[in-house]
Amino acid sequence: MVSARFVTILATTIGVAVGTCSDGQCAADDESSLLALKTSRATTRRRKYLVNCRNRDNVSFTCGLDGECCGDICVARGGTCCQNDNENDFACAAGDTCCGNSCASAGSKCCRDTGYPYPVGPNTQCAGQSQRCVNRRGEKFACGPTSSCCGDVCAGEGSSCCLNAEGHNFVCGDGSTCCGNVCAAPGSKCCVNGGVSFPVSKATACPGEGRGTQCQNRHGHWFACGKDSSCCGDICAGPGSACCQNHGGHDFVCGRGSFCHGNICKVR
Questions:
Q1: What confidence tens digit (pLDDT) does each residue in 147-196 have?
Q2: pTM of structure
Q3: I want to staple 178 with a disulfide (CB 3.0 to 4.6 A). Which of 71, 104, 142, 162 is the partner?
Q4: Is residue 252 a contact partner of residue 235, using CB atoms and an 8 Å limit?
Q5: Does residue 25 fall inside a structural domain?
Q6: Residue 152 is assigned to a structural domain of this protein
């Protein structure tokens, strides 16, 4: 049996520090040291796989373990890095593609025929040879290949482009005509009474119709004048009066015994 004194001398001789343990303290210290070593190794491994990126301002930033650099942002590994019209970066999912300012999902397609890219389904046709129109605010918009521009809206093939009393465009279908703020269907006619246009069937008399002279104004609308009156452009001329037009293209009437003289009437 080796004496304790000999062990102490031997340890001192070979330069080994021998501590004194009590109540399992040495075991606890060993476990703490081992945990710290494992944590340090795990942190080192994570840092090894982090992605270091640099933005347009030359400022560095870090993306996650599964991230990749995408200009000023991070994108998931396998994702698609895109840039919009303002040169700002954005990310699309894996399998998606960049389509202008948006993402075209997997299986879809990106149309570029209007000058502004947009995604559609695989079975959806692009606008193709669409009509390029401009509204009253100067904004461009597209109408169908067989449509036409009608102010702020599109007019289908064969339809009529109309304007209501508020100055807004509207469309009447194929064969219909504009009648004030509404459409007159094929086989009908447009009446005007008190400045209001309205459609009626051809067999229906407009107010005053049948009791006087039927006239048609410059817009193609019918109106009635008195029995002995005559048509004078957009207005009626009484018996013996003269039908005149001013420099602005508006009709006016000079009474019996007077005649037109520029924008006024002159007595004979």
A1: 899 999 999 999 999 999 999 999 999 999 999 999 999 999 999 887 88
A2: 0.38
A3: 162
A4: yes
A5: no
A6: yes
